[in-house]
Amino acid sequence: MTESPERPSAADRRSNPPGANEVGDAEASASTGGTTAAEGGAGERDVAPTDADGSTEVASVAADEGGGGEDDLEALREQVEETYDFESFGPADMADMSLEEWEAAFDPETWIVGEELLDRVEQELEARVAIREIFAIVERVSDGEDRVIAYSDEGYAVIYADGSIEGEGTVLRDVKPTVALCSMDSYELMDQPAERSLPEPREVVEGSGEFGNLMLQIVAGAQVVVGIGLAVAWLALPSLSTVVAPIASIGFLAIGFFLFLVVANARLSDRFRVEEFRNRLRALENAGEEWGDVLPEEARGAIDAGSGSDDSDGEFARDDGTDATTAETGSIADGPDSDNANHGGDPERRSDTD
Amino acid sequence: MSSSGSTYGDIHRYEPARESTAAAIAIVLLTIIEVLFVFLFTYGLVSGWGLTETGNMYLGSVLAVIFIDLAFILAMYRKEFLPDVVIVKKRRRKWEDLYIREDDVDGTPFADGAWDHVKRAIYPYYKR
């Protein structure tokens, strides 16, 4: 149900005639982007929240423009409450529901939006970055329109006050459930973290302490010495005729060898991982320069250019991790994605979003 | 399915080891015990303690102490002396990923009938 909080926004701000929406997401976005570009880029946002189901807005618009249809809505809502058992509501019920019924049952008042939502999202995202559940830089941008942006080398996400999200890549994927949670009244935010951002590349020190390695090496050394000693004793002393001594010797040697291997592996992997992490943080800085200011324009460009849906998975693959390509690579948001097409929301990462 | 965008191998967190003082003292003590007992065991084995009944039991206990002590050393080392690293790995398919809809909960049958199952288990390429 991660999509739910975005729906009221779509319903509220959509002012185009319903016919325009039925053309499809891509063309609708192109037309709105063209007509409303002067309004501070309000047009581009409409695409993201609606995701695959462009037709949802049609229903909502119809509901809004009904004017005197308040009573009808109430009646429909009651009818929906009767028809469906929301205590045990499954995908099958979801599939049965018509769009009008869904819109009627959905109450926009239940979600937190606006300034408060952004505050909550900002705090929550910072907390999640602090525990590294999300890897991104989080910023609050207030010029023009209030919004929270999160970006990394792997993508970006922009969260607007009405709860709509746009972006691409893994950041968008990770941020989405957070926004959904924050818009719920019952969700308690995580505590404000002490460290508000990711570390500086230079501050990252190589991790494993040499002290622990030294201790392990002493143990390994003792094992190896004893193993060799036992083997020599078995060969030299006639009193050690049983098979026990060589077996113990082999055992000790094996343990010693294993421990040395552990230490070597720790040192080696440390060196590589530290470098890798520094590179990633550097890439993040570059991503910031590239995306930090130009984000809205960039996003608009992506809307205009990338009208098609793109389901390929390797889209954002950047092996070197150093070069953050622009947002124009793909369709905005995640397009008509299979995840959102089925009404069960995305079953991917966190079950607590349901 | 869920992870679009290849981020495999990305490092999300890299924090240096804690290396608290208590852990340092503990691992030093454990190391000393380990080394002592390893040499004690070897000495006992070479001097033939194992030939008497109690001596044999004693040697066995010493060996047990060696291994248990080693286990604690490794646990301590892993917990306190290695960095805290979180790496993106490929998410394997889980059961719940396979069947999105309730109707599909049993999936597509692999074969029809028990005998067919047996045949396919023995020869996987049987009438694909």
TrEMBL record, chain A:
Biased composition (Low complexity): 26-39
The entry's keywords: Membrane, Transmembrane, Transmembrane helix
Basic and acidic residues bias locations: 1-15, 345-354
Domain DUF7319: 97-298
The UniProt record lists the keyword Transmembrane: yes
Keyword Transmembrane helix: yes
Pfam families hit by this protein: DUF7319
Chain intervals for the UniProt region annotation (Disordered): 1-71, 300-354
Transmembrane annotation, as ranges: 214-237, 243-263
Protein name per the record: DUF7319 domain-containing protein
Automatic annotation (TrEMBL), chain B:
InterPro entries, sorted: DUF7318
Keywords: Membrane, Transmembrane, Transmembrane helix
Domain of life of the native organism: Archaea
Transmembrane segments annotated in the record for this chain: 21-46, 58-77
Entry protein name: Uncharacterized protein
Source organism (scientific name): Halobellus salinus
